[in-house]
């Protein structure tokens, strides 16, 4: 079936050095869940919990990228990508999370990196995209400080093997989301429901970032180190109630955005007293020297953006949280996931980061941005989404934000966590029964946009 697209307008021009990419994650695409000595991750365990995943789907086969990566790299070459963001499966490399290395896991990433480089595509691996080895979760997971040190061990193993060819590394993906959905609410792996008691997960992930960054730099002195945070502009309803809503918005901003940006860029945590954390050491969780480790200079800050968050003061303060998340006060087009499409929120976010952190803000990379749309090849809504958000990046750059690259989510349809295979984010449609890949109209649009940016 052929597809066509209607251009939503002439795209802006970006600098010749601007990097165009696409992103995926290991558990969401690799499949081969127990192949070649891979150990179980928390997601391999969680998907077998009754009712955890829509329709009982699992990532056991996913897109079978483990065996079909050559086909996927060929698609990337056709797109004209400058870079590809993927993640390394920690339990594929260290099945128990520590100790014995599985050489066949490293061999897979060796082959992938070599194939990317042969295609002229810069490999950009993420070290942790939520698939913690189950053996470490059995010891307490990210609630335990020791996990940060085991993460540094994994980073060292990966960097020593791949660092002769891989120079740009991302340590963590969306530590906020992993903490909240995985440890506070239990809707993602590992499925724990600790609510505010999950806050140590934030610090231990950030400490793991700092330790892993040092480990990578020890193995790869010319490495570029990033961390990818999911950030959101916090908005009030038009009829906000003044001080109460303003305080609620500030509390949410502290939890979602500043908790994971301030330590990296300022070397301190924001005021968390609204969450009962008046002690700056969090009752001994934060130890001497930790913040200096976390705040070692970054070469870039990855930003994953999907939509703003609207906040009001809590209707029931006794419920425990100092805010309520509410629907926006005006209509927006919705993605298939039900998320509002708000391109100007990305420009608002980027310029807000520049205003808040000033010279402390390193170069920014958009490491995820994309949308789920209904299955099918003629995905004009996705083209409109991408065009609007890429335009918002250009707008922020015109206002002085140093943005170095854009990675759309995602290259291919994949296993979308608790939604299983029901949400389709790919530029490429995947028939999960046959593993057939078919480029969508958005693939052609993104390919042509990249080609038009070439000198």
TrEMBL record:
<feature type="binding site">
    <location>
        <position position="173"/>
    </location>
    <ligand>
        <name>substrate</name>
    </ligand>
</feature>
<protein>
    <recommendedName>
        <fullName>Beta-glucosidase</fullName>
        <ecNumber>3.2.1.21</ecNumber>
    </recommendedName>
</protein>
<keyword id="KW-0136">Cellulose degradation</keyword>
<keyword id="KW-0119">Carbohydrate metabolism</keyword>
<feature type="active site" description="Proton donor">
    <location>
        <position position="174"/>
    </location>
</feature>
<feature type="active site" description="Nucleophile">
    <location>
        <position position="368"/>
    </location>
</feature>
<feature type="binding site">
    <location>
        <begin position="416"/>
        <end position="417"/>
    </location>
    <ligand>
        <name>substrate</name>
    </ligand>
</feature>
<dbReference type="InterPro" id="IPR001360">
    <property type="entry name" value="Glyco_hydro_1"/>
</dbReference>
<dbReference type="Pfam" id="PF00232">
    <property type="entry name" value="Glyco_hydro_1"/>
</dbReference>
<feature type="binding site">
    <location>
        <position position="129"/>
    </location>
    <ligand>
        <name>substrate</name>
    </ligand>
</feature>
<keyword id="KW-0378">Hydrolase</keyword>
<feature type="binding site">
    <location>
        <position position="306"/>
    </location>
    <ligand>
        <name>substrate</name>
    </ligand>
</feature>
<dbReference type="GO" id="GO:0008422">
    <property type="term" value="F:beta-glucosidase activity"/>
</dbReference>
<dbReference type="GO" id="GO:0005829">
    <property type="term" value="C:cytosol"/>
</dbReference>
<dbReference type="InterPro" id="IPR033132">
    <property type="entry name" value="GH_1_N_CS"/>
</dbReference>
<feature type="binding site">
    <location>
        <position position="28"/>
    </location>
    <ligand>
        <name>substrate</name>
    </ligand>
</feature>
<dbReference type="GO" id="GO:0030245">
    <property type="term" value="P:cellulose catabolic process"/>
</dbReference>
<keyword id="KW-0326">Glycosidase</keyword>
<comment type="similarity">
    <text>Belongs to the glycosyl hydrolase 1 family.</text>
</comment>
<dbReference type="InterPro" id="IPR017853">
    <property type="entry name" value="GH"/>
</dbReference>
<dbReference type="InterPro" id="IPR017736">
    <property type="entry name" value="Glyco_hydro_1_beta-glucosidase"/>
</dbReference>
<keyword id="KW-0624">Polysaccharide degradation</keyword>
<feature type="binding site">
    <location>
        <position position="409"/>
    </location>
    <ligand>
        <name>substrate</name>
    </ligand>
</feature>
